[in-house]
Amino acid sequence: MAAGRRGGMKRMAILMGVGLAAQAAGAVEVKTEKLTYTADGRTMIGYLAYPANLAGPLPGVLVVHEWQGLNAYAKHRAEQIAGLGYVALAADIYGAGRVAKNTTEAQQLSTALKHDRPELRRRVEAGLRALQEVKRVDPQRVAAIGYCFGGTTVLELARSGARLSAVVCFHGGLATPLPAEPGLIHTAILACQGANDPFVPPPEVAAFEDEMRRSGADWQLILYGNTVHSFTNPASGNDPAKGLAYNPLSDRRSWAAMTAFLRERFATAGQAANQ
To answer: What is the DSSP letter of 142?
Structure first.
């Protein structure tokens, strides 16, 4: 390996090590700001979170919100991602920073896009481009994560052929009218699902597994026992009989699985770039 490449890999390793050490010491100061971008002429108002005390370029993570829209929960997750030493953009999928007033409106907004997967893909692709264009982001080390509706959305991004380091779906709908063709998925996928989720029943999970096998993708599926839908969000309450409930153990375990997955995938992407 050439000396220049060894030096580049060494600098990358040091940078990643600094990020992890800062996180462990609780020393990552996170800054946030609005980030306005467009999708097919529609104004989108994202939420950018990044480490103030780490030099770039850093890996970037696109965070896609639940069906309510870009609310406080999605912004908090972006801040947590920034605390890991990454740049996070909480995408605005509905436009103009719109947040549903109630569950009826949330269902209307999310269902309209689920019924128009090409449009859903265009909107999340616009968020991805906006993140890659942030100066402190390394565009070769970018991932996307999503919760519920957002999980469905980032899976569509993977199915579209987007070239990412990783995609992580938390308790998202796994079904799609546009399944991935063999060889089209160019990212590694991690799906974290509740084993007792009534909104994503076993036949849907099995169909997703079959799709992933046929696609030839690098994929993982983790099912958390005694866990229903929306298990990462404390606002879901604590009554599993309703079909959705917060599960702190599954929340912690899935977050740990995601952080390890991102660390692995970003390291792999960095090594490839320096070869």
So the answer is: E
Which residues does residue 36 pair with via DSSP β-bridges, in sequence order? 45
Question: What's the mean per-residue pLDDT of the chain?
Answer: 91
Rg (the chain; Cα; Å): 18
How many angstroms separate the CA atoms of 223 and 138, rounded?
32
Band (pLDDT 50/70/90 cuts) for residue 26 is low
Omega prior to 248 cis, within 30 of 0 = no
Query: Tens digits of per-residue pLDDT, 46-102?
Result: 999 999 998 889 999 999 999 999 999 999 999 999 999 999 999 999 999 999 999
Instruction: Write down the pTM of the prediction.
Output: 0.90
Q: What is the pairing mode between strands 87-90 and 58-64? A: parallel
Residue appearing with tokens 């990643």: 16
Q: What angle do CA 182, 271, 213 make, to 5 degrees?
A: 20
Q: Are 208 and 175 in contact (CB under 8 A)?
A: yes
Q: Which residues contact 53 (CB under 8 A, 6 or more apart)?
A: 22, 27, 28, 29
Q: Does domain 29-266 have CATH number 3.40.50.1820?
A: yes
Judge contact between 51 and 28, C-beta under 8 A.
yes
Asked if residue 1 has pLDDT above 60, the reply is: no
Domain residue ranges in the chain: 29-266
Question: Could you please report the per-residue DSSP string of 192-235?
Answer: EEETT-TTS-HHHHHHHHHHHHHHT--EEEEEETT--BTTT-GG
